[in-house]
Write a structure and sequence with these properties.
It is a single chain. By secondary structure, the chain is α+β, with helices and mostly antiparallel strands. The protein has 5 helices and 15 strands. The protein has a single domain, classed as Immunoglobulin-like (Sandwich).
């Protein structure tokens, strides 16, 4: 099987949410050449699992349907969308204003999971785009980012490429790294005007609600967290023994539940080791925990008809 095709299938994203926990997903790490033309006809898309966006105010698939697939090659983040449009779209007035509340795809990326800084990218099916740092700061961001959109039988498909250096990740991404990211849509017509990867119940700009994406696999993420843990450099025999146990556990992680349990155990044992070995130090250790729910949809691309690109 072609490597791109195999990885796109094997590392397809699993989204999930549990009460009181952030959402988590695997961000596939793929290699190979990809032309951003909006057609979604490359090999990797043939078996890629696209996740349905949710209604923003309820935990159900949005209507009209929108599907998204995200991945990285270590140098850029790619977002592919299949968008259903139930009625013909009328272009908004010809002006220099980006009309956020009509028909748009919006992408939110926080390059550092533990920091508030995030970037906001938006496109509409008429070729307009907008990018900014955070909210309402369009003058702060001037990096180029290619995108393309193509009309399909159901509506349109979109493909966006965000260079990692444009969001401050000068060294790119590698297996086990984490970012926070969300994909949203404003639908011009249909039941659910506002859509997101998870129901937000409010503004798309809720930074703390962005899903956490683990580059590669949950197993890669667990290994990276363990290697950066204070337990890694401990000399006490009991701590070293616990480190070995956690290392074994990290090799058996298969899904988001395993990953979530591993992070909870790592945080617990790190706090215990610090409490027992450094009782006079005022040091707090906390690691995020995440939840899971299964993939909800699989679909092949529709054949594009008319191309629109920036």
């Amino acid at each position: 099987m072609n490597r791109l095709k195999q990885l796109a299938w094997g590392l397809s994203m699993v989204f999930g949410m549990m009460a009181g926990a952030a959402e988590v997903a695997e961000l596939p790490l793929l290699s190979g050449r990809l032309e951003v033309d909006g057609r979604l006809d490359e090999v990797l898309y043939q078996d890629a699992r696209f996740d349905k966006l949710s209604a923003n105010d309820a935990a159900r698939p949005a209507d009209p349907a929108t599907e998204a697939f995200m991945f990285t090659d270590g140098k850029s983040i790619y977002v592919a969308c299949k968008v259903t449009v139930p009625e013909e779209l009328t272009p908004p007035a010809e002006d220099d204003i980006f009309h956020y509340d009509y028909e748009t795809i919006e992408i939110f990326i926080a390059p550092k999971v533990k920091e508030k800084l995030y970037y906001h990218f938006s496109i509409d099916p008429f070729g307009k785009s907008q990018s900014e740092i955070g909210i309402s700061n369009p003058a702060d961001y001037a990096f180029p980012w290619p995108f393309a959109m193509v009309e399909s039988d159901a509506g349109y498909t979109a493909e966006i490429k965000i260079p990692l250096e444009s969001i401050g990740l000068w060294d790119g991404l590698k297996s086990g790294d984490r970012i926070a990211m969300n994909v949203c849509r404003v639908a011009a017509n249909g039941k659910d005007h506002y859509q997101s990867l998870m129901p937000l119940g409010g503004s798309f700009h809720q930074r703390d609600e962005f899903p956490v994406l683990v580059v590669g696999s949950f197993q890669d993420g667990a290994r990276a967290e363990l290697s950066e843990s204070p337990l890694n450099n401990a000399r006490q025999p009991k701590v070293r023994e616990m480190y070995r146990e956690l290392a074994t556990q990290s090799e058996n992680i298969r899904n988001a539940d395993d990953y979530n349990g591993f992070l909870a155990k790592l945080a617990q044992e790190t706090r215990r080791a610090i409490r027992e070995n450094y009782p006079k130090e005022n040091f707090m250790s906390g690691l995020p925990t995440h939840g899971k729910f299964p993939n909800r949809h699989f679909c092949r691309c529709r054949k594009p008809r008319i191309g629109i690109s920036s």
